[in-house]
């Protein structure tokens, strides 16, 4: 019982740290070492987004892309946020039926093999804050609330991939 309370306190502190970085525009980097951390980062990125949210994922798993994250994205889009989602061809465990009606997800027309320079698992908000997987094999990721130059590189890559993608139809 004490461990659960301690874990919950640590997660509240982690969420507060991520939220604070987003709200202050701090350029500190926070490690993302679990699917729950990834979910917290995505939730806070969406809640604090002002203009845009783009995300690329190998296969939007429901351990990270929870119904709560997808609901927040749908609400943010309904309130005027630009939302674009991209998954890699052949890696679609995401049931398109889980997406809120006002969201669409596109699939890359690329081969199933990642190419050098691909950003496979990333999310960028407002062209400045991002979460990116830095070690695909070990599933390690990092979050930064304010690195516009690096975020712009990720968005440029995303835009190229998104332009040649096809929409996933709802199941």
CATH superfamily membership? Endonuclease Chain A
Mean pLDDT: 83
> What can be said about the biggest beta sheet?
8 strands, mixed
Total count of helical runs of at least 4 residues: 4
* Computed Rg: 15 Å
H and E order = HEHEHEEEEEHE
Number of β-strand runs: 8
How far from one another are the termini? 41 Å
**CATH third-tier fold name:** Endonuclease, Chain A
| Largest sheet, spatial ordering of strands | 1-7-6-5-2-3-4-8
Strand content: 15-25%
Task: Classify the secondary structure makeup into a structural class.
Answer: alpha+beta
Task: Quickly count the domains.
Answer: 1
Secondary structure: helix percent: 25-40%
Based on the structure given, which CATH architecture is correct? 2-Layer Sandwich
The backbone outline, from C-alpha atoms, is globular
Per CATH, the class reads Alpha Beta
How would you describe what is shown here?
With 171 residues, this protein is an alpha+beta fold. The protein has one domain (2-167): Endonuclease, Chain A (2-Layer Sandwich). It has helices at 2-24, 35-48, 67-78, 148-163; strands spanning 29-32, 52-57, 82-87, 105-107, 122-125, 129-135, 140-144, 166-167. The chain has an eight-stranded mixed sheet, with helices on both faces. Strand 6 and strand 7 (140-144) form a beta hairpin. The protein is globular and about 45 Å long.
């Amino acid at each position: 019982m004490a461990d659960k309370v301690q874990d919950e306190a640590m997660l509240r502190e982690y969420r507060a740290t991520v939220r604070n970085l987003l709200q202050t525009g701090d350029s500190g980097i926070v490690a993302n070492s679990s699917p729950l951390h990834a979910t917290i980062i995505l939730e806070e990125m969406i809640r604090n987004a002002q203009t845009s949210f783009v995300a690329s994922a190998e296969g939007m798993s429901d351990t990270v892309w929870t119904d709560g994250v997808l609901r927040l994205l749908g609400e943010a889009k309904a309130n005027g946020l630009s939302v674009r989602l991209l998954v890699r061809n052949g890696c679609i465990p995401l049931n398109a039926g889980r997406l809120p009606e006002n969201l669409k997800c596109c699939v890359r027309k690329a081969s199933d093999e990642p190419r050098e320079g691909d950003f496979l698992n990333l999310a960028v908000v407002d062209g400045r804050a991002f979460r990116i997987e830095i070690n695909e094999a070990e599933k390690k990721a990092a979050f930064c609330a304010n690195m516009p130059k690096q975020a712009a590189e990720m968005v440029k890559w995303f835009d190229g991939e998104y332009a040649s993608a096809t929409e996933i139809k709802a199941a």
